[in-house]
């Protein structure tokens, strides 16, 4: 079974301690950084960021969300929904670390990616 699938199964069973190593295994590394070549890398990094947030490891979560943003931007572009959501995750993590000067630009870029249409918001077309 692929590592990301194992990670998701462990998360569904409430075992982030077992999910974390599976997601780490799913991220190909080149030196000290992930290989930012597919959206799947971004998804695994996002899961790692969320797991580390819930486990109180905010600095580690910040690194994972930063890498996830880079992975999605490289694989799908700046206007992709995954990139925008990843930027919002990064902003939330900065806010939790009480770093508003870093969080505010991320929030602004995330919110500016939405278009208003009627009562709801829609994602911009790529």
CATH superfamily: Tetratricopeptide repeat domain
Any idea what the CATH architecture is? Alpha Horseshoe
Strand order, largest beta sheet: 1-2
CATH class: Mainly Alpha
Global geometry: globular
Helical element count? 6
Quote the average pLDDT.
89
Quick synopsis:
It contains six helices and four strands. A hairpin with a 2-residue loop joins β3 (115-117) and β4.
Tell me what you see in this structure.
It is built from six helices and four strands. Strand 1 (about 30) and strand 2 (about 35) form a beta hairpin. The chain has one domain (about 5-120): Serine Threonine Protein Phosphatase 5, Tetratricopeptide repeat (Alpha Horseshoe). It starts with a helix and ends with a strand. The protein is mainly α. The model has no long low-confidence stretch (mean pLDDT about 90).
Kindly list the characteristics that best describe this protein.
single chain; 126 residues; mainly alpha; Serine Threonine Protein Phosphatase 5, Tetratricopeptide repeat; two-stranded antiparallel sheet; 4 strands
Helices and strands in order, then pairings?
Layout: H1 3-12, H2 16-26, E1 29-30, E2 33-34, H3 39-54, H4 58-76, H5 81-96, H6 100-112, E3 115-117, E4 120-122
Antiparallel strand pairs: 1-2, 3-4
Helix pairs in contact: 1-2, 2-3, 3-4, 3-5, 4-5, 5-6
